[in-house]
Amino acid sequence: MTVVDVHAHVFPRISRTESRILDAENGPWLREDEGGAGMMMSGTTEYRPVGVELWDAATRIEQMDRQGVDIQVVSSTPLMFGYGADVCRAAVWCELVNDRILDLCSHAPDRLVPLCQVPLQNTEAACEEVTRAMAKGHAGVHIGNHIGDRNLDDGALREFLAHCARENAAVFVHPWDMLAPERMPKYMLPWLVGMAAETQLSILGLILSGAFEELPRNLRLCFAHGGGSFPYLLGRADNAWRRRDIVRTDSPQPPSAYLDRFSLDSAVFDPGAFRLLVDVMSPERIMLGTDYPFPLGEEEHGALVRGSDLPPADRDLILGQNALKFFRIGSPRDGMTETRA
């Protein structure tokens, strides 16, 4: 049994000088401190303290071994997206970040699977970078769930998603730049409330706009954090579609009819929530996600799935088999822990 974590972040070594490629004043970079500690920086501003596992492949592999994780699908930290920058700067920046992620993963290519990032603010540049990155060895692309006031159902973003389908690039969607921050100044509420709302908004936007009627069926799309509020409120959305014509204007089918068009990760942290997630999406549409190595991630990786009352075959799907197919990952090398339960 191969265990695959599809939601694991990295912040490769990028210097203050290199960060100016994106933004002369506030570009993101990594400050390495003593004792295995570090700080994600935004220009001269300290953004978040981090540990060496965020950028050091050897430490990461050691921790994966302790946690019983065979493979990580790694994506950049959303601070690095650069969506607000000039597209020329952002294109060069994304190429730098993606090559650094490839270099990090090259230390253990059968254990670390890279996702690229793109200058999503410009469709042509984003498509070009996906094509380049896939040719160099990335398994797909990691994107934020919106660009300013444009959600994923925006015409240009639909065009980008269609291009990903043509390139056979899996798409992992992560919430970022959360709505109404002025109303959530304390207690990490943008992460606890805003992220869940952003993800629900993204999924329902694609459904109710009719985007899934146009996008290729071979598009492989996965949303983080168990889909945020979406699974819990799907019944409300279906009820609204049945009762109000303004809800179903562009969607010929109720929201629940589109559950076979995307997948969700398992990062919900509660047995009852996980049971609901499985009931709504089915085991075939869920993949293990831990949000490693950040504090809001799953402390014991895969414990929620392993401790569930699902049949063993369904647990195996979620712990690894779905991800191997979704990201088109080959089997790990001989001598690894294929037999983990």
TrEMBL record:
E.C. code: 4.1.1.45
Pathways involved: Secondary metabolite metabolism; quinolate metabolism
Domain Amidohydrolase-related intervals: 4-329
EC category name: lyase
Gene3D superfamilies: Metal-dependent hydrolases
Pfam families: Amidohydro_2
Keywords, in A-Z order: Decarboxylase, Lyase, Metal-binding, Zinc
InterPro entries: ACMSD (IPR032465), Amidohydro-rel (IPR006680), Metal_Hydrolase (IPR032466)
Zinc found in the keyword field: yes
Domain of life: Bacteria
Keyword Zinc belongs to the record: yes
Subunit organization: Monomer.
Family listed: Belongs to the metallo-dependent hydrolases superfamily. ACMSD family.
Descriptive protein name: 2-amino-3-carboxymuconate-6-semialdehyde decarboxylase
